Amino acid sequence: MSHRFTRIAATCAVCLASLLGTAHAQTKLTLAHGAAPGNPRSEAALKFAELVKTKSAGKFVVEIGGPAQHGDEVAMLSSLSTGKLDMSINSQGPAGLLVPELSALGLPYAFSSSAKALEALDGAIGEELAKKFEAKGMVLVAWMDNGIRQMSNNKRPIKKPEDVRGLRLRTTADKSTMDLVRALEGTPVPINFGDLYVALQQGFVDGQENPLANIHSAKLHEVQKYISITNHKFEATPFFVSLATWKRLSSDERTLIKDAAQEAAMMQRKLMAESDSRLLAEYKKMSSVQINEADVPAFKAATQKVWDNWELKPFGDFVKKLRAASN
Asked: Domain 26-326's class?
């Protein structure tokens, strides 16, 4: 009996050692974003985590956290640069504070569609921006789509440029968006996305601008009466890995992470593209929301001076290159 007990104990010890070895071999990676559940960005984060776990046979486990764990998107970028955070699917506005050329993507009517913008980002323009971010301590592994943006408010339908005059509109920290709103004689008010619902509900701002997918996932239609299809700008969603984390990965592991990020990005882009027509139809059926089409040529004409002013900035050559690409 004692010999049998010894053999069982030895077998259990081997199993335990094997389990411990597997646990120690597992690497946890933290990924943060600020999107609401159900948003294409949030869905892409879940897909990325699933892909990484599968492709690495469980070696890498991605833990996803939002603002509650990692602060707002500006704080996420700071944590990326120091290596405190491994990854972030971030936003153009906050990231543009580090690399101002990124904000130029959001100049008025730079691209007629997300597909055109993403074509540019998948090419030389995206590569140029990626090099600038690497100098800031973060590796750009994929471009996601934050959509063509629309305006909403509680005062009146926005049909022509003068309808924006006097409105307090929430924007991101993106300087091109703020300049666009000023060109239309509105007042831009930068507010974190997580605080936007309450700001609209309490009347701190009259309205905001976002793609329909973001408006819907954050339920902003509950606190906005008018949604106007202005199509006034595009915004990218950059997916970053901390350079400190990147340097700890082998060449094969880097390829695995980048491939998973690209695959998740393709899914996110598809979800964003599908959401526009679906959500527009859904909003048109809502009695609590009024939808209208804006006079896009008039908006283009009223905001072209923003382009002219941006060409005078220190990175004016990039703006000119972008303007040529968008045309």
From this structure: alpha beta
Q: Which residues contact 81 (CB under 8 A, 6 or more apart)?
A: 136, 137, 138, 242, 243
Contact, 209 vs 168, CB < 8 A? no
CA distance 10 to 22: 18
Return the H-helix or E-strand segment holding 49.
helix 40-55
CA–chain centroid gap for 14, Å, is 46
User: What's the predicted TM-score (pTM) here?
Assistant: 0.85
Q: Which amino acid is at 179?
A: D
Name, in order, each residue with C-beta under 8 angstroms of 68's C-beta and a sequence gap of 6 or more. Answer: none
Kindly state the tokens that stand for 21. Answer: 């070895």
Task: Assess contact for 93 and 172: CB atoms under 8 A.
Answer: yes
* Domain ranges (residues) in the chain: 26-326
The string of pLDDT tens digits covering residues 271-315 is 999 998 899 999 999 999 999 999 999 999 999 999 999 999 999
Taking residue 2's Cβ as centre, other Cβ atoms within 10 Å add up to 6
